[in-house]
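Record format v2
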Amino acid sequence: MQSFQLEIQVINKRLKACRPTFFFLVALILIWNSPSYAGEVQVAVASNFLNPLREIARSFQKETGDRVQIISGSTGKLFAQIVHGAPFEIFLAADQTRPALLLKRGLAVKDSAFTYAQGKIALWSPKQGKVSEDGISTLKAKRFKHLAIANPKTAPYGSAARQTLQKLGLWDSLRQRLVQGENISQTFQFVSSENADLGFVALSQILDPKNKMKGSRWLVPETYYKPINQDAVILKKAKNNSTAKAFWKYMQGGFPTDVINRYGYGPGLPGD
Amino acid sequence: MDYAALNFQPILLTLKLALTTVGVLLVVGIPIAWWLAHTGSRIRPIVEAVVALPLVLPPTVLGFYLLILLGPHGWLGQPFSALTGDPLSFSFAGLVIASTLYSLPFVVQPLHTTFEAIGKSPLEAAWTLGASKWDAFWTVATPLALRGYITAIVLGFAHTLGEFGVVLMVGGSIPGKTKVVSIEIYDHVETLEYTQAHILSGGLLIFSFLVLLTVYTLNRRLPVHVS
C-alpha cells in the first residue's frame, strides 16, 4: 500500500515537471490550428486595389463562409513571385500586360482574364490649394521639392504618371525632383505624410473612405496616359479550388461593381 | 551580356554613404563606447539597451519612425529645413542619419568591449606620468584599442552596405541621391533583369566576404595588448 502511494507521488511529481512542456504543446496546437474555414482562396492584389478588395472579401466571406486571404504588393513584384511559384490563386493586377504574360507562360487558367476595374490617376496634395484646378500650372511652376510617383517600371500607376509628365514635356526637367514609391501605396504614403509635397496617386486612394485628408487634386485627363485596365486572372495553382472559382465569379457581380465605382474606378469592360 | 545597362552610380553612392556613415558613427560612437566602458552610472544598462535596439528591431520600425522624424513636421526634419531650406526626407543627409542609427550597435559594441578590456590601469599610469586625459586617450588608449577600432569601422561599413529595408522606406529611390545598390538590385529582380541583378549581387557578395575576411585575418595578426 505504502509503495503504491509512493508511486502515485512520483507520478504526480513527474506530471508537475511536465507541466510547462504540456502548456507549451497546447499553445503550439492552438497557434497552428487557427480557425478553419469551409474554403479558402489566396488572392494577390495590386496595392491600389487593396482596400476595395478588403470590402469585397468581407462581404464574400459573410455570404459563403469561405475565407479570402489577401496578399498585396506592386504588380511587378507579385508577377515575379507568381513566376517563381508563389501559392497565389487569383491575381488582381493593375495592368493587362502581366496577366497576359502569365497566360502565355501557362501559369494562368485559359480564358479566365477579365478587366475588373479601370484605374485613374490624380495629382494630389493633402494641402488645400497646393494643386491648382488644372494641375498643369502647378507642375510648370515647380514650387515643390519632391514629386512622388510609383516606380514606372513595376507599377502601372507609375507608368501612367510618367506618360503624363512626358506628354506635358516635363519629364526631363522634373526628373531630379521625382521620388519613387515602390508601389502606389508607398507613393500615397510619401505624399500623405508630407515627406513629398505632391504626387501622382490613384484616384481610388483619395476617394478611399479611410483617407480623411481631402487636400487638393487634379484629375489627370484620361487622354494623357494609356488606360489603366486592371485585369484579373485565375492562376494554375487554383485549378482544383472551387472557392477560387466562386470568388472569381463573385468579383463580376453587383456588389463588387458598386464598391469598384465608389472608389472612383471606371467600369470593367468585359472581355476586353 | 548587356553591360551598358549596368549603372555604376548606385555603387558609388553606396560607397559614399557607407564611408560617410562610418565617419559619423566614429564621432558619435567613440564617446558613447568610452562612457559605457568607464561609467558607474545607473542608467548605463538603459543606454546599452538603446544602442542595441537596431539589432533587434525590424527595419520597418526604424523606417516608420524615421519617416516621421525626417518629415517636414518631424523633430529633425523641421529644424533642418528651417536652417537649410531643403527637406531632410529623400536626401543624402537623411540617409546618413538613417544609416547611423541602423549601424550604431555595430560600431559601439566592439569599441565598448575593447575599451572595457583595456581597463583603467594603463590610463591611470599615463595620468600619473603627467599626461592629460585627452593625451592619455590618444596616445595610450587608442593604440591599445586598435583592434576594436578596425572591427568597428569594418562592421559599420559593411552593415551600411547591406542596408535595405530602412532605405526602401525612407529613400524614395532617387538616382544619385538615395538609390543605393541594394535598392537597385531589388528593382532589377522585380523587373526580371536577372543579368544586372546577378552582376550587382555577386559583386556585393564577394566584396562583403573580402571585407569580413580582412577583419578576421587582421584580428588574428594584431597582438592583443590587453594587460
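The interface with chain B takes residues 74, 76-77, 80, 83, 145-146, 148, 151, 153-154, 176, 178-182, 186, 189-190, 193-196 of chain A (CB under 8 Å).
Residues 40-118+229-262 of chain A form a domain with the D-Maltodextrin-Binding Protein; domain 2 fold (CATH 3.40.190.10).
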